[in-house]
Design brief:
The complex is a heterodimer of chains A (344) and B (316). Chain A folds into 2 domains: 179 residues, Thiamin diphosphate (ThDP)-binding fold, Pyr/PP domains (Rossmann fold); 141 residues, Rossmann fold, CATH 3.40.50.920. Chain A is an alpha/beta fold and 344 residues long. Chain A is built from 14 helices and 14 strands. Chain A is globular and about 60 Å long. In chain A, strand 10, helix 9 and strand 11 form a beta-alpha-beta unit. In chain A, the strands form 3 sheets. In chain A, strands 3-2-4-5-7-6-12 form a 7-stranded mixed β-sheet, with helices on both faces. In chain A, strands 9-11-10-13-14 form a 5-stranded mixed β-sheet, sandwiched between helices. A two-stranded antiparallel sheet of chain A has the order 1-8. The longest helix of chain B is centred in the first third of the chain and has 24 residues. Chain B has one domain: Rossmann fold (3-Layer(aba) Sandwich). The radius of gyration of chain B is 19 Å and the shape is globular. In chain B, the strands form 2 sheets. Chain B has a 6-stranded parallel β-sheet, with helices on both faces. A two-stranded antiparallel ribbon of chain B has the order 5-6. Chain B is α/β, with parallel strands linked by helices. In chain B, strand 3, helix 6 and strand 4 form a beta-alpha-beta unit. Classes of the chains: A alpha/beta (344), B alpha/beta (316). Chains A and B meet through helix 3, helix 5 and helix 6 of A and helix 5 and helix 6 of B.
Chain lengths: 344, 316
């Protein structure tokens, strides 16, 4: 009997089950005790664990640093930042303190903290509320950085993150919060640091993550039987699982990367650079889709052209395969509202 | 046991170690940025003498004194400065990253103000687990100007944490003078107490004044009343490295520094307390030998192997 739940509910369930299992876990974030806390990912936790869920002042540097300090003393905080822009107020604590702590003290100094940071697109949010900054976190040595793309992955990754002894940053794409999937009720893990072949195929490797993964998944049905796509969920930015990616490319000989942020210093450019250095025998030059190198504006008349859509992804695949493009007009809802979708 | 004499020995150890490290630094044997603690010894020893072993301490870029006052291992410290394998951070941290968890010296970080919320989190853990302990964090007058410090005041007061912030005010942030950084109306006590944090000012050149005031504030912190102890003191050396232009100083002239030097004053107090000159000299000679032996040990210690570059990025 499938149990279809939303992405946000999967995160809430993982948190609840882990807090029940480990009393060292506590939750910190703005509005954490509110009934719909952290977009529903902390609903009910404050009443179930009254001494372990903390609403905090609007002091991102301060409360993030406090959580890092608690982690170096053995607690396991979950810090929630509802927008990545606000987490930047805590950049020193995340990038320079937590991430460097174990290395700079010569080992033996774990920092078991989970930073849940929401990123990316949402209607009407504009340049200062929609950044993703994947490259920034991927570049910060000492962090483990994961991006859940599906509800199953969200739950399993959060459980792993809460058992890990290092600072783990989960970059959660707000766009896919309503996406649903059959998620096991029991505790299970998805490993940090590994990409996952989500859909096996033989013609082309499509590498995507976050909302880009969901768009790529939707593109598969537009392509139908005419191309056999191997869809890889990147999952981990730091470290990147090159082994899984290269193994797929040795089979397909073709690559399309999908970034739902600007293309400069992106996942696409990083992976394709490694592919080039590796001299993999390819059938076609690697191809990359991304947002343009401008901030995301607010007007829907402009955001319509900002993010790669499922049609863009399908056509990018067809281009690599030397097949004719499809034309399919997208509705306003498809372009501007979060997808109401159940994944297999 | 004469407690003043014991405190004098700790202060003398810090002073002697730092002076010998200055000599090594000038011989270019130390390839690590060094911020010397000379002149501020009464603060570290006064505060740490008011603590139990279980209490935790964190520091900043100028933390040799804090580390040694809490009981940190001297040999490991010098090895760390020399980049050796058996340094306290196995050569990866250097002078700005002191750490000895065995004595609850929980680490020091040089980005100004950064250690303050980390200390707040250390106190948070003590309260979360109902421990009877407190956390002390040392910061300077420069770090006191960082925004995150004020965020931390609010958090510590809100959560009633057992946290003491010891502000060592040596009148300089690198080369910027205090009077060039704050308006005439700037009022430290007003700022601190406005957050609901207790504030006491001490003469940082006077061990007994620091100790007495620290004891009182620490007792309050154990009851959930966080506090700031501001200690007025002098930095005898430059911000980083030993040489600082004397003519640039105003209040902290060589004459004033010497007159108020805590080590000199303590030595007098110990003598007046009935310890003989001979006993003092013999203790000093013992400390000098310990320092010299530790330096010789560190100079002969081995460097970390190349593979060490790649280890410890993540904890197992």
């Amino acid at each position: 009997m499938p149990r279809i739940i939303k992405f946000t509910e999967a995160l809430r369930e993982a948190t609840d089950q882990m807090m029940e299992a480990d009393k060292n876990i506590f939750f910190v974030g703005l509005g954490a005790t509110y009934r719909n806390a952290a977009d529903g990912t902390a609903t009910g936790l404050a009443s179930k664990y009254p001494e372990r869920v903390f609403d905090v002042p609007d002091s991102e540097g301060g409360f993030t640093g406090m959580a890092v300090g608690a982690a170096i003393n053995g607690l396991r905080p979950i810090v929630h930042h509802g927008r990545v822009e606000f987490s930047l107020l805590a950049a020193d604590q995340i990038i320079t303190q937590a991430a460097k702590w174990n290395y700079m003290f010569g080992g033996g100094n774990p920092v078991p903290i989970v930073l849940r940071i929401n990123v990316g697109r949402q209607w009407g949010n504009g340049p200062q509320h929609t950044q993703s900054l994947y490259a920034l976190f991927g570049n910060a040595l000492g962090l483990k950085v994961v991006i859940p793309s599906t509800p199953r992955m969200a739950k399993g990754l959060l459980v792993s993150a809460l058992r890990d002894n290092n600072p783990v940053v989960m970059l959660e794409s707000r766009w896919i919060f309503p996406v649903k999937q059959d998620v096991p009720i029991e505790l299970y893990t998805e490993p940090l640091g590994y990409a996952k072949v989500a859909v096996p195929g033989k013609d082309i490797t499509v590498l995507a993550y976050g909302d880009g993964f969901v768009a790529a998944y939707e593109a598969l049905s537009l392509l139908g039987e005419q191309v056999s796509v191997e869809l890889i969920d990147l999952v981990s930015l730091n470290p990147v699982d090159y082994e899984t990616i290269f193994a797929s490319m040795r089979k397909t000989g073709r690559l399309l990367t999908v970034d739902t942020t600007n293309g400069a210093f992106s996942v696409g450019s990083e992976i394709i650079s490694k592919v080039a250095q590796k001299s993999l025998q390819l059938r076609e030059a690697p191809s990359a889709l991304s947002c343009p190198n401008v901030p995301c504006p607010t007007s829907t008349a402009l955001t319509e052209f900002y993010y790669p859509t499922k049609v863009d992804i399908a056509n990018a695949v067809l281009r690599v395969m030397h097949k004719p493009a499809i034309t399919r007009a997208l509705t306003f809802e498809e372009l501007h509202l979060a997808p109401n979708l159940t994944l297999l | 046991m004469n407690t003043l004499f014991e405190a004098y020995k700790k202060m003398f150890l810090i002073r002697t170690a730092e002076e010998e490290l200055v000599a090594l630094y000038l011989k270019e044997k130390i390839m690590s940025f060094v911020h010397f603690y000379i002149g501020q010894e009464a603060v570290a020893v006064g505060v740490c003498d008011a603590l139990k072993k279980e209490d935790k301490v964190l520091g900043n870029h100028r933390s040799h004194g804090h580390y040694l006052a809490k009981g940190g291992d001297l040999k490991k410290m010098i090895c760390e400065l020399l980049g050796k394998e058996n340094g306290s951070s196995r050569g990866k941290g250097g002078s700005m990253h002191m750490m000895d968890r065995s004595v609850n010296f929980m680490g020091s970080t040089p980005i100004l103000g950064s250690v303050v919320p980390l200390a707040c989190g250390t106190a948070f853990e003590q309260k979360y687990n109902n421990k009877p302990d407190v956390t002390v964090v040392f910061l300077g007058d420069g770090a006191f100007e960082e925004g995150i410090v004020y965020e931390t005041f609010n958090l510590a007061a809100l959560f009633k944490l057992p946290l003491i912030l010891v502000v060592e005010n040596n009148l300089f942030s690198t080369n910027s003078k205090l009077k060039d950084r704050r308006s005439d109306a700037h009022h430290v006590q007003g700022i601190v107490t406005g957050f609901g944090i207790q504030y006491v000012k001490a003469d940082g050149n006077d061990y007994e004044d620091v100790l007495g005031k620290a004891k009182k504030l620490i007792a309050g912190a154990r009851m959930g009343h966080p506090a700031v102890l501001e200690c007025m003191t002098y930095r005898h050396m430059a911000h980083s490295g030993p040489i600082f232009e004397e003519e640039y100083r105003e209040e902290d002239t060589a004459e004033n520094r010497l007159k108020k030097d805590s080590i000199k004053k303590m030595r007098q107090a110990v003598l007046h307390g009935g310890v003989s000159e001979q006993e003092i000299v013999s203790a000093e000679d013992g400390i000098k030998k310990t320092v010299q032996d530790s330096i010789d040990f560190a100079l002969n210690a081995s460097y970390p192997p190349k593979e060490s570059l790649y280890t410890d990025l993540y904890a197992p």
